[in-house]
Structure prediction request, 88 residues.
Amino acid sequence: MRLDKFLKVSRIIKRRSVAKEIADQGRILINDRPAKSSSQVVAGDTLTIKFGNKTETVKVNQIVETTKKSEAESMYKIIDETYAENFD
Prediction:
């Protein structure tokens, strides 16, 4: 499955156009390699996604073409979540 579609279906990113834009800016890594929006994602891959202040690392558990909101979280497991700055 394409990276941008996986991010949308799994609801990590809500819109496919936003997922495509982030990937094409070089802010997503698949198994520590830069990824484009058209890169293929398979079960077992590790995705590192850089959102503004937050960096999230997830492991892909399964690939499903369509899913309900309640089942979307079963597609991945969050491994790490770090923040560049702490605003406490």
In short: The helical segments are 3-9, 16-24, 69-72. The first strand starts at residue 28 and ends at 30. Strands lie at 28-30, 33-34, 46-51, 54-60, 76-83.
